[in-house]
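anyone else get weird line breaks when pasting these?? whatever heres mine. first is seq + tokens for prot A
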Amino acid sequence: MVITTAQVPGGPAPRLVSGNALAGMRPGSVLVDLASTVDGGNVEGSIPDTRVVTDAGITIIGAGNLASTVPAAASTAYARNLLALLTQLMPRGEVVLDLDDDVQAAVVVTHGGRLVNPRVRAALADFKEIRS
């Protein structure tokens, strides 16, 4: 497997894997071109957002837009985590705290007018020492 990432801001991506290099690869080889654009990419024959299988059985994946898909995946994962946490904190639609539960104890900072989170308490103590 080969992953290429070379890009030039404002210019075409350099050709790193030529047709001759592809011809020397074994069938089943996979190349991911993270610089694939309509103007070309790092791998000869790569097409943006497309998986191409050559006659020799080599797969070329044009993934030049891959970085832009990360925010959507991160947002989805974050939303799922928040939903799972809220479901645990509010099993019947009302907040039910169990500070003996490891997850709840880790996310609750204050309760009943007291600072109950040991990590936050330690961080604040360190902060006070630094400011003194």
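and prot B, same format (seq, then tokens)
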Amino acid sequence: MVESTVYQELSDLINPSQVFENAPLSKYTFTKTGGNADFLVFPTTYEEVKKTVQYAVKKNIPYTILGNGSNLIIKDGGIRGIVLILTKLNQIYHEGNDIIAQSGAAIIDVSRYALKQHLTGLEFACGIPGSVGGALFMNAGAYGGEVKDVLTSALVLTSTGELLRMEKSDFEFSYRSSAIAKHHYIVLEGTFSLQPGDVNKIKEKMDELTYLRESKQPLEYPSCGSVFKRPPGYFAGKLIQDSGLQGKQIGGVQVSTKHAGFMVNVDHGTATDYMNLIKYVQRTVKEKFDVDLETEVKIIGED
């Protein structure tokens, strides 16, 4: 009865076609794993995000924010409370050399938009599968570039549902980390400051990085992207490879034979398979090299 009441109240707040009850999250993760959400909401405006968060706070219901589910493992028990998926907030536009992108837009699409505007600085992001919100949350980077290099400000919602404009200095960026996580803020949009460039050179760079990504990464299987952070002085993939773990499989999840830093869902794997394989790899690398591998992938939900 309580669940039906929450569903009804959420449907009164925003369009009922954007609200789902007991919804499988495996449909929305790159690993194709994860249990159900009690309530799943797809906001289409900042006001809908704000209303949903304020409702959750008022009713003391836990809420979780998701982007496009790329660098993420949702446990098989799913997520209690309300899950907001922000992928419908995906507008991208520019003002001069600044590109403003909503949090649900894919960062790859933002880099392609920059190319169309002859703007340079976001080429590094042309192969990052995450959303803008996720990219800001974890200071995403690749091939020598990071979000902190180009971000100037962001519009966020605080954990109590208040709008806040953050400047770059407020983000406290570090390797795969930002103040967004620390303060439990919700990214609504980010502003990236770029420079005019030669469209042919920008495209050439993006083509080169796309080739490198496609030739080295196991894109033919569902995966959560790079599983581990780079340990100081080492490369996670090299340590895993040198531990003889490529091809190691638990359940339906395997350490990629193409790139040891990735774990791929090769045969109807579960989030539990992912968790068990991650622990096995961490334990083995620790025994062989005395290096602690810290997860880069975000792991959430109930066992």
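btw re prot B: The longest strand covers residues 186-193. The longest helix spans residues 271-289.
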